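re the bet — no i am not wrong, look at it urself. input seq straight from the record:
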Amino acid sequence: MEKPLMAGYMNRSLDVDLSSGRVSELPIDDEDRTLYLGGKGIGTRLLYDHTPAGLDPYDPEMVLIFSTGPLTATRAPQSNRFVVTTKSPLTGAIANSTCGGSFASKLKKAGVDVLLIRGRADHPVYLEITEDDVLVKDAGHLWGKGAEETQELLPKAFGKAVIGPAGENLVRYACIVSDERLAGRTGCGAVMGSKNLKAVIATGRRKVEIMDDATFSKLQTSINKYLRSHPMTGDVLPRLGTANLVNVTAGRNILPVNNFQRGTDRRAVNISGEKLAAEEMEKRTGCINCPIVCGRSVKLKGKITKGPEFETLGLMGANLGNFDLKLVLELNQICDDMGMDSISTGGSIGFATELTQRGLLSSDLSFDRHEGICDLVRDIAHRRGLGDDLADGVKRMSEKYGGKEYAIHVKGLELPSYDPRGCYGQGLEYATTNRGGCHVQGSTMFFEATGPLSIDPLSVRAKPQLVVMQQNLVAAVSSSVFCVFATYAVVPAFVYRLNPQGLVSRIMVQAVLNSGPILTMALKTKAPFKVLWFEKFLSYIFGRRVTLGEFIEIGERVFNMERQYNVREGFTASDDTLPARLLNESTFSGVERGVPLDTMLPRYYRLRGWDPDGMPTEKTLKRLQIRH
């Protein structure tokens, strides 16, 4: 095997044109690897470089990029993931989504760092990638089938990334599925379907070169032990999964109920993680080389299937006025098999239900009755009847039927299950995140409402700093590619064990609230040391010192590169906003308005080095070495 240009990479990236069947090498140099790492970072750089401004997401020349990271297919915990990047057919902004499953490691073991796909096949096909070849094969026998059956029909030795009927029918929030994991948001599956590409499969036995393998192994053992002993990654997530957040968010008045009309409901306990674990869970499941094992398997109609994550319980449950756990399990299974984002699905149905409630849409939808809702989800995937409208998402529905003030989305992407009226920093994060309303691009709500400490969720103090810090960190994590759940353990275990009402807890919270200037200084300082395990793993695999400052700066670069793409596509500061309901209506007694975004946004822009119109300045782009 040819020696990689840099350890951690396979020195082979592919450019596949489905229109012509041509397969060629995709050049990626060491400078871009150093600046962007891989995963989300390199995907963003390539999307910008390989598409002209204004290209329609469904145009044959739109690229669909699968990218691994330098740590993919190694033993580093929570690192066997891939990122898919394109332009979102839902938002028109950058689309990216991270996914577990076996595809990432198998693609890299086939000797491929990045797979860039362009063109459109003239009939349904799938790609088969091995160490020696890339074959375009007929997928006529797979077209129309669900994600589960599709994967069963493909060769067992291969890692798989497939679409279901939702992707084939260009549902704007269709997913890409690998095993039971989903690249869930922004509609990457619809772009894949527009290319008549049903699946990409890969297998191989190549190994990733690690420069300091002995120290890497010691760190792996140490971090696995740490993650298993941590209160969140070693107890809460393994025991309850992300569903642990149902009771937490309901208790903090931030669980969306009836299309974000309320933030809590006493019936939330009926769809909680505790109830799921006690009555429905069959076993725990997890991704390759992950010590947390946060997935749930449940029995549904006599069959073992994947259980719902918190977002599905929130959006397909409380947001629809649905507190029937078994019904949520069924809706989750249908969404997964259809290859459809349950967040956007739940958001779209919730909005359509309120439109019906207000007399703007004629349908049988109700927050009190849910007969036929499973059929409706299938109708969305096949674009039948009312499902055809819902398949286009909340933003387009509001343009057709009205109700824009309670159309819950940012930049066209439906919001997840954290009502920002009870966590102002999360509201700022929603408004400024490049792919639209998303919680896993920073998860600021963790510091305000769902983590071990509550940094005054109804205050704006230090929130712009926290959002910038979190967005940069998560962008770097997603470029490595690590799982975002790893960031939970960045908060030391002792913090979780503090009494939230205790003196030490209150002192720590006040310290953060009053640390605006300190956080601002920290954001501008390149920390010359290694603190977290992310940069330590990179140091040992590359054989050179990677500092925390360098790691965070990579995240800042990636975030700004995404922003630069959106600016090129016509997005401005006017798109950095929230739905009118969330800005103007409060769900808290004694609070007159919703999220005070106008107070936080100017400070956020200044911290980012953007002008008042939300555009990165030339000085910022030069500092971060972003070419455009």
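see?? The radius of gyration is 23 Å. told u. also Residues 253 and 263 are 4 Å apart (CA to CA). so pay up
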